[in-house]
Amino acid sequence: MTTKKASGGTLKKFIIAMVLILIVALGFTGLNYYLKYFGGNVTDKQEYLYIHTGADFKDVYKTIKEQGIVKDTATFYWAAENMNYLNRVKPGRYHLHEGMSNRKLINMLASGTQEPVTLAFHNLRLKEQFAGFVSKKIEPDSVSILRLLDSTSYVQQYGFTTENVYTMFLPNSYQLYWNTTPEKFFKRMYANYEKFWTPERKQKAEAINLTPIEVSILASIVDAEALHDDEMPAIAGLYLNRLKKGMKLEADPTVIFAENDFTIKRVLSRYLSINSPYNTYLHTGLPPGPIMMPSVNAVNSVLDYQKNDYIYMCAKADFSGYHAFATNMADHLVNAHKFQQALNDRNIKR
Questions:
Q1: How far apart are CA 52 and CA 91, in angstroms?
Q2: What is the chain's mean pLDDT, rounded?
Q3: Bridge partner residues of 50 (DSSP)
Q4: By C-alpha distance, which of 274, 273, 287 is closest to 239?
Q5: Are the beta carbons of 41 and 75 closer than 8 angstroms?
Q6: Which of 114, 140, 133, 225 is nearest to 171 (CA)?
């Protein structure tokens, strides 16, 4: 009888021990599972993870490992494999937060939930500069952006030439995804261009016998001439007067653009004979394209120009940035002499 009781007690202890071992094992497994999926693993070494177009999981894993994005790469790999991420890689710019779990990180990457970039640009003189600036904000390089801008067949489908396509890009602040392709970027800019050119603006352009593209070309000259925005409507009115009369615009900024030397402060007579379609001292009418990216204020100043009788202008001798306007050559020569003397007094030779 005693033996039976002892045997029963031993069995009971064995069962209890096995249950405890099972509980501990399950607890360890659960803890291990929790840590692999839900434990904080992302470090503070990088704010963003960039996954390039065409990258596969090996590329992503290599980047994560090399940049120290996670503390434990083994658990990340295990979680990625178990969450079927290996074949669901999506390019983009992903915002990282210290302490993110593998599960949260992988869900973000697999779903392509990236954070957009803000692209703000204005007063970029050349489209080459523009392409370089944009390429620092989004994945495509400047060469791929310029390739579209310089493609006659591509820009024609939007109604532009390679000379005037730069008028399509209106200075503003835009949000777009980092891995936006050059084609999608172009379409986004064109959509904004169409939105800007409302029926009202188109009617104003038609009233001055200009197309939207021509308005922007003239606006680029106005913008280059005006140091102060409040003077833009008067300058626009002057150039519109010259266009109506069939006079050459004779705008100094177009000569500087043609010379491709933007350090020039004094346009000398030898520059006026530069053989270029952008030289408005040689050619009547507007140049074939803008001489800089015109601001929205400049475009609106052309559309809402000041009605005046000005035909001539030159910079004021006080170097205030404003202009002295004239309706006749005699007055203009007086103003020009004052400014030339001021340049001489300051020893500004070019």
A1: 5
A2: 89
A3: 93
A4: 287
A5: yes
A6: 133
Residue 5 has what pLDDT? 53
Question: Could you tell me if 161 and 286 are in contact, meaning their C-beta atoms sit under 8 angstroms apart?
Answer: no
**pLDDT tens-digit profile of 200-212?**
999 999 999 999 9
According to DSSP, the residues that pair with 101 across neighbouring strands are 40
Question: What is the b/e burial string over 30-64, where b = at least 16 CB atoms within 10 angstroms of the residue's CB?
Answer: eeeeeebbebebbeeebeebbbeeeeebeebbebb
Domain boundaries, given as residue ranges, for the chain = 48-111, 117-196, 199-345
30 falls in which pLDDT band (50, 70, 90)? very low
Phi-psi label, residue 127: left if phi above 0, alpha if psi -120 to 50, beta otherwise: alpha
Which amino acid is residue 286, in one-letter code? L
123-162: pLDDT as tens digits: 888 999 999 999 999 999 999 999 999 999 999 999 999 9
| pTM of the shown model | 0.84
Residue ranges of alpha helices (H) inside 67-181 are 73-82, 102-111, 127-135, 142-149, 152-156
- Among 44, 27, 24, 40, smallest CA distance to 75 is for 40
Supply the DSSP string of 23-82, one letter for each residue: HHHHHHHHHHHHHHHTSB-B-SS-SEEEE-TT--HHHHHHHHHHTT-BS-HHHHHHHHHH
* Run of H or E including 95: strand 92-95
Q: Which residue from 118, 143, 139 is spatially nearest to 131, judged by alpha carbons?
A: 143
The per-residue pLDDT for 27 is 44
Q: How far apart are CA 128 and CA 124, in angstroms?
A: 9
DSSP string, 302-322: HHT-------EEEE-TT-SS-
For tokens 């009233």, the residue is 207
CATH number assigned to the domain covering 48-111: 3.30.1490
